[in-house]
Specification:
With about 300 residues, the chain is of the alpha+beta class. It is about 30% helix and about 20% strand. Strands 1-9-6-11-4-3-2 form a seven-stranded antiparallel sheet. A four-stranded antiparallel sheet has the order 5-10-7-8, with no helix packed on it. The longest helix is centred in the N-terminal third of the chain and has 19 residues, at about 30-50. The protein is globular. Bound molecules: 2-oxoglutaric acid and fe (ii) ion. Fe (ii) ion binds next to loops. Fe (ii) ion binds near residues 134 and 220.
């Protein structure tokens, strides 16, 4: 049976490109009719975040969870949270083309998809801010042998940035997602982590509506400019095979609000199975809880 493949901006099947390069850029995952609604919902959410009416934020000065203090916001957390009352986010997160892309990347079907994170990355207002070169699930100080082991753990999930406005904030080192750091890379990640001269670095340019999927263990950093508008949807989904490794990566973001009737009541039909799948993972891997200690905490 022939199944239509989703291809990237260079006409390569997205799963092949992601596997080879650690990232892939693809067009057209936001239905036209949803673009303005998403922009409007982002605008309202950003306003709430910047005025302190939304407490779940990433604040300038802190890169990894938990984000406990600050005023200048670089990320609005938990777009699916029922208290935010912006249902278009769930509508898009469960929309057919996006789900099809995720299923192709994970070689799975909708029945096995697992709902995970959905946040918004924005430009700060007070000052520019750089994230350090990092892998999401392997702290910089990790010894070589352990780094190798961690990089061999399958992900059973994928994450992406979908830009609503031009976005050139993300830098990656292509093909670095499954190999240990070279000694030069290791030195930079530990001793000069905001370096603008990482060997092989590539700036990812997204046009409005484009999505980059990237391996969360590719070497990457981001530059946040207060003067350049950013509203980029930042999300992940997994499969039911993720187990405790996946649980550790996503529950470090504290998703207790997912385990509420208010949340269950506003789930669109398309997300009911992905939701029961993440509940099953919490039950299996984390005694039913949706929160664990952050991976980078205390290092
Ligand atoms: O801002 C970005 O595009 C990347 C953010 C990131 O790397 C992270 O939150 O771990
Ligand atoms: Fe990251």
């Amino acid at each position: 049976m022939h199944t239509a493949m989703i291809t990237d901006i260079n006409n390569v099947p997205i799963d092949q490109a992601l596997k080879e390069n650690g990232y892939v850029i693809v067009d057209g995952l936001i239905p036209d009719a949803m673009v303005q609604r998403l922009k409007d919902a982002c605008e309202r959410s950003i306003n709430k975040a910047r005025t302190g009416q939304w407490k779940h934020c990433r604040f300038v000065g802190t890169q990894f969870p938990p984000w406990t203090e600050g005023t200048d916001v670089w990320g609005v957390q938990h777009l699916l949270h029922p208290d935010l009352q912006e249902t278009v986010f769930a509508e898009w997160y469960g929309s057919p083309k996006l789900v099809e892309a995720v299923c192709q990347l994970l070689s799975t079907t909708t029945d096995s998809l697992q709902m995970e994170l959905f946040n918004l990355l924005i430009n700060p207002e007070e000052r520019d801010f750089d994230l350090t070169w990092h892998r999401d699930a392997v702290p910089a100080e990790t010894p070589k042998e352990q780094e190798k082991e961690k990089l061999e753990i399958p992900h059973y999930g994928t994450q992406w940035n979908t830009a609503l406005y031009d976005d050139a904030c993300l830098f990656v080192v292509p093909k670095s997602h499954r190999r240990v750091r070279t000694s030069e890379e290791r030195d930079i990640t530990i001793n000069d982590p905001k370096s603008h001269n990482m060997p092989g670095q590539l700036q990812v340019h997204l046009k409005p509506g484009q999505t980059v999927f990237y391996d969360n263990n590719i070497l990457h950093r981001a530059a946040y400019f207060k003067s350049s508008k950013r509203a980029t949807l930042h999300a992940s989904m997994g499969t039911i095979d993720g187990g405790h490794h996946r649980a550790a990566t996503i529950f470090q973001h504290g998703l207790d609000w997912m385990d509420t009737d208010a949340f269950r009541q506003q789930l669109p039909e398309s997300l009911k199975t992905p939701y029961s799948n993440v509940c099953a993972m919490a039950a299996r891997s984390n005694e039913g809880k949706f929160a664990v200690k952050p991976i980078h905490e205390g290092l």
